[in-house]
Amino acid sequence: MKRYLWQNPDWQDFQVHYDQGTLINLLSQARFLQGELLGKIASLDLQLRTETQGEILIAETLETSKIEGVELNIESVRSSVAERLGLPSGTGAKNDRHITGVVEVLIDAVRNHRSPLNLDRLNRWHGALFPLGLSGV
Does the structure show a pLDDT above 90 at 25? Predict the structure, then answer.
């Protein structure tokens, strides 16, 4: 079994065959739940909304890293997210540069989801994820 997506010989083949009916049902359910969540968040005051977004971002950071088989320290993630959103961190956990990079990319992807994914943006993401270049991986 391959550990990383890119280790599969056909990883870049996006012409994958799938059951369209199953996919549409799952996407519809996800979209409905997303709407419910956004509606609930919109009813919160600004501080509580920011804290809620922080909790969602923490979960997203942890789950995104799990895709690559990386388990992150939740307190370090919480600290990094709190710092980026201007929330009190409360954990005293030391910031990890790798975690900070993942959080920065996710925040940019969420806040600027309508912006084009161009070379400049990809380079900024690369710089956030690999601050020491490829030799630092």
Answer: yes
